[in-house]
Design a protein that fits this description.
homotrimer; 264 residues; alpha/beta; UDP-N-acetylmuramoyl-L-alanine:D-glutamate ligase; 11 helices; hydroxyethylthiazole kinase activity (chains A, B, C)
């Protein structure tokens, strides 16, 4: 079970040596940033998201991200077909239920994807609570609940998927059948740049082929991103330079940096 | 009537305290940058633009931006429905008629949206002239006319919407029933980065819930963006670093900075 | 025939004086970055890509880019109509066959566009080999072949289009009826930022109206981008800051910088 900095460093070294091909069906707001995050980390992004190609590609990709940020009926169908194809091929896939909770289309699509058993669900507390079917409710993509409040909802989702749930917030909680792991690293600046949460989903998909369990991938991804954010914050003067520094930090982050990881 | 730096600073403080939820149906080129501008400013972006969700969302948003930069027939219908929903809910909304003037689809969509009475129309001189139905003509998204030449067209649009028109250029002119206000702040670098004009539309939508009149929101937004651009220019070495510095400057711009505002 | 730094500098001066209007139908991942590259260089981007407007616009644009990065059936039809309109109007156009080689939709679209005779085809070795119909094969957008291995495939495509083919890699090779020109400038960081290759296609389209032959445009574009990348690398600390510095460098790159061009 991956739960400390040394284990994360080892997985990161394997990821960089392997250059995993990570397919992303993600939202229009963050495609460029997500691809750059994956490149900086050492992965190979493939933003293949059309209906004809996406399901085919899911069987050659090393990991798949499905992010509900911007949807329409056709994209929703592509997501379903791609999730099925990933499942059939044994490709690990991550579901990011962006802004689920009160908007009709994404609530429906989220509910359809959970039974297809995503390896990891990555969201904020409100999204995880809403996706689980429990009472909660968000405000767009902002979470109005603490990550602790979402642990029961996360455990309920784990019971249905057999995978892991990563609840993002000031304290991140990674939940699977073996329990809850927490990470307290990271900075508030992460919420001042669009797509940092979405990037975490992509990083989880990049770690998944190297991790023994989905929760291990989620733990390593959260550790690497939050430490890189701390490194970036030291050099940044605001949200614009933070985003730039975050990419630089993801590229250079190593074992010595990861040693500052604050686990729960 | 907001027409000086102190009044702008007060509105900015209220915006930051309120974290307005700003829904953007904008073009594919600038979605990420627009979201980052809103976050840096202190607003909460929601890029909800699909046909099923966008009209619903317009009634919970604090302000809405509809930007015609990239269109197709389905998006055009979503824009109409969302404008109607915003109007019905009393949510202020901003129309940015990107590149209207000579291209069939966007000319038609612009003509359909004006009667739905946008709170603010934000465009360059060519776009405003074309949207008003007067003779003019642009060249893609570049303006070939001065903002002064667009004042009559702007006044004509104000007569039809009851709102305000912000004409962007080296000298910005904000027009409503009470007259014309001008702002001469800003830098030429603003035209070397894609989406700076589009970002202004989003910032207007963020100010709208706090301003007494649509023109006040347009004035405050133009003041904040042009001053932030001047701050950014002092630290930038070219258009790439300017875009980064602009986000940092939008995050930190305060009363002392706004004092350099040059009004007409 | 443009084959040295002085000739490139002269073409660059003409481009900047002319501010060419470059229409891009490109992929959703890189639209913003591509527009910013064109602005930094001194061109005027127009990301007009809907079915109603794109073919019309191709007759007023100075150059057109068609990039297959993200596709669906409707976009594919728009690309065909736009390529035909560009051909009919005599507007030079560039085809970037992103990730052609093994994915059904883009292979089909690529095969349909070649007979419409693009002025320049710009791709990596795998893409060029696949597009030519020869045996090869890629891995998403990564090339698994050297540019030398693609020269025969490029020559075969030149025979069908009458234009030029630019094969991108550590050594770039520009092929047309007159032979093969090589450029060895550039840096590995170019592959760590999404959209740098796509940007090259846009830069070729910006040079095309000023060059005597398509291969001259491809040579000048490759020279300017690779030298700008070298300048950027000197100031960057990683892929995030490299992308920012690349835009700054494209804005300031001049004859003295181009003198370091390494030709084959």
């Amino acid at each position: 079970m991956v739960s400390d900095a040394d284990q994360v460093a080892e997985l990161l070294a394997r990821l960089r040596a392997g250059t995993p091909l990570v397919q992303c069906i993600t939202n229009a707001v963050v495609t460029g940033f997500t691809a750059n995050v994956l490149l900086a980390l050492g992965a190979a992004p493939a933003m293949v998201d059309n209906r004809e190609e996406a399901p085919v590609f899911a069987s050659v990709a090393d990991g798949v991200l499905i992010n509900l940020g911007t949807l329409d009926a056709e994209v929703a169908q592509t997501m379903r077909l791609t999730a099925e194809a990933a499942g059939a091929a044994g490709t690990p896939w991550v579901l990011d239920p962006v802004a689920v909770g009160g908007l009709p289309l994404r609530d429906r699509v989220g509910a359809e994807l959970v039974p297809l058993r995503p390896s990891v669900i990555r969201g904020n507390a409100s999204e995880v609570i809403s996706l689980s079917g429990a009472e909660g409710g968000g405000r767009g993509v902002d979470s109005t609940a603490s990550t602790e409040a979402a642990v029961d909802a996360a455990a309920s989702l784990v019971g249905r998927t057999g995978g892991a749930v990563a609840v993002s917030g000031p304290v991140d909680r990674i939940v699977d059948g073996s329990g809850v792991r927490t990470i307290a690293s990271g900075t508030p600046t992460m919420t001042m740049v669009t797509g940092v949460g979405c990037a975490l989903g992509a990083i989880v998909a990049a770690f998944a082929p190297y991790a023994e369990t989905p929760a291990d991938a989620a733990f390593a991804a959260t550790a690497v991103l939050t430490i890189a954010a701390e490194l970036a914050d030291e050099k940044a003067d605001g949200p614009g330079s933070f985003a730039v520094q975050l990419l630089d930090a993801l590229h250079r982050v190593g074992p010595a940096d990861l040693a500052r990881l604050r686990v729960g």
